[in-house]
Design a protein that fits this description.
The protein has about 190 residues and is mainly alpha-helical. The protein is built from 7 helices and 5 strands.
Length: about 190
Amino acid sequence: SNGGAAYSSYRRIDGDGNPLPTKAKTKHFPSGMIMPNLFQKNVLLPSATLLPTSVFENKSLRFDPRLKVCEDYELFLRLSMNTPFFFCDTPVTLRRRHGSNLSAATPRNAMTEYEMLRSFAETVGLPRQLSDERLAVLAARTAREYKKVGDHSESARWLSNALRHHFSLATLLKYLAERCLAALRSN
């Protein structure tokens, strides 16, 4: 048994170390058993998270080597099932943001996050009402990343996926537009 983990917010800097505006990704930083909140929004940054030493004694709690991105998020989700996390309001780290960050928005990274969360939800048996809305948002984000690179066919496929998780008229309209653009490109 352990006393829990601690995490804090951070300050953003650019590639040269200059301060960037730091917008709060969330207004609520949960404390306690945060797994449901963490599933909905990743608020943890590895360099701003302190873990109890007992975590390192547990051989089953390791990064998933198959994941090239989101490996920290996936580990934190598993850890949060049995470990309380406590938020400290004082930023304790700097987060460098530049064009070649591994976590940059790309179709592959968005798809990896979606697949990781889908697998986690299925493995731990999360209620569909908890997982479907989040997975719909991630499927729509994946579609947006495919649209940015001009792949309307993949964008439409991911929007269809989003609709299977959670219906929204806006997503349906985007799906129809992407299907039309994909059809025009194939002619």
